[in-house]
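Hi there, hope your week has been kind to you so far. Would you mind checking whether the C-alpha cells look sensible for this chain? I owe you a coffee for this, so here goes:
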Amino acid sequence: MQPHRLTMLADPSLLRSACYVNGEWVGAASGKTFAIADPATLEQIAVNPEFNTKDTQNAITAASTALRTYRKTTPRERARWLRIWHGLMMANIDDLATIITAENGKPTADARTEVAYAAGFLEWFAEEAPRIYGDTIVPSNPNHRLMTLKEPVGVCALIAPWNFPAAMITRKAGPALAAGCTVVVKAPAEAPLTALALAELAHRAGIPKGVVNVITALDNTVEVGKLLTTSPSIRKVSFTGSTAVGRLLMAQSSSTLKKLSFELGGNAPFIVFDDADLDVALAGLLACKFRISGQTCVCANRIFVQRVIYDAFVDKVVGAVRQFRIGNGFEEDVTHGPLIHERAVRKVDEHVRDAVSKGAKCVFGGKILDGLGANFYETTVLTGMDMSMKLCEEETFGPVAPFFAFDTEEEVIEMANASEVGLAGYFFSKDSSRCWRVAEALDVGMVGVNTGALSDPAAPFGGVKQSGFGREGSKYGIDEFLITKMVMTGIA
C-alpha cells in the first residue's frame, strides 16, 4: 500500500495532533484522543485530543487573560498580524489543500480554492481593522456632548463546521481579531486538522499567546458546547451548522444573554424562467448544486424550472453530470469526492428513496457507489417532484438535483418561500423587471441573480427565518464582534 498523501506534506509540522491553548500545543488532561479518518478510504490519518470541560475552561481562561492586553492593541497592529497570517496561508496553500482533502474528501482543486478563499477573509479584515469608526452626535441638551465608541465584545467562542474547515474559521476569526477580541475555536470533530494547521500559522504570524485557541473533541462535543455557551467569560458565540443544533445553542446561550451570530441550515430554491439563458443557468446550477458533492448550506436544494423549458433544461443537466468523475479527491481527474461519513450517505439515499416512492422519477444516478467505498453516492437527478417529499422539507446535503415544474412567476415564488428556512436563493432570467421583482420577493438572506456563486469576502453572508441571524464577511462582518458604547459629557 502506498503511503497516504498526508504523510508527504512539504511542511510536516503543519500536521498537529495536539490542541493550541495559550500559545502552546497541549493534549487532553485525561490523555484521551479520537481518530480522524479519510472519508474516501476510511484510513485513519491522525488522532486528536478529546478535550473535556476542564480542558476547555483552560482555553477560555487563556483567552480571557489575553483579552486584557489584546483589546488595547492598535487596529494597525492587529491588521499586521492578520496580514502575516494571510501570507502564511497562501505560502502553504498546497499543504493546507492536502490536509483539507485528506480529512474532508473534496477534490484537491476545490481544496486549493477554499484555502485562497479562506485567506481572503484575513486579508479583508486586516483592511477593515483600521476602519472601526464611532460617531459624534448632536444631543438634545446644548450643554452636553455625545459620542459613540466601538469596542470589542470580548472573548468569543467560534464553533465551526466540517464542510469548509478553513474558510468557516477565518470568516469568524478574521473579524474577531480585527475587532480586538480573543477567540476559542471549537474545531469540527470530522475535520479538525485544518483548524490546527491554521493555529500553527497563527502562531508563526506572531499573534500573541491566548488570542487564538483551538480545541478538539468528539465524544465530549455536547458538554464542551454547553460550557462555551454558558460560561460568563464568553461574551459572543458564532456558530455555523444545523438549525436543530442552533436552537439548542441559542437556548443555552440565553442563560448569560450572549451576543450571537448563527448561520444555520438552508433549503435554497433555484429558479429557471423560460426567458433565461439556459447555458448560463446550467453553469450556475453545476456550481451551486454539486460543489463539494452538494455538501454546502447554500447549494440548490429545490430546482424549479418553467414548464415550457423543463425537459430541455433537465436534458442539459443530465448531459453535464454524465461527465462528472466521482472518486478519491487526490486523483487528478476526479471532479467530486465522497460524502463526509456513512450517516450522510444514508440520509441522501433516504431522501431519494422517499421521492421515488411518492412518484418522482430518477433519470440519472440514485445509487450508493459501494465499489468506491462506504461514503460515495452517485450524482442524482430526479424529475416529477412535488412538495410532499422530504427533499422539499429537509436539507439533503448531498449530490441530488430534484426538479419541479412551474407555470407562473407567482406560483414559483410561493413554492420557493414555502420553507421554514431562508438562507440563499437563485434565479435566472433576462427580464430586468422580473429580476428586481423576484429578488425582492424571495424570503432569503442572499440572492443570486443569473449566478450560482454567492461567496465572497466582500459579501455579507447570512440568512433569515430559521437560517439564523447576523452576517459574516463584508463591512458588516466586523460589527458582529463589536459593541457600541455611548459617552455623554456635560460641559460648563
User: Anything to note?
Assistant: Residues 108-128 form the longest helix (21 residues).
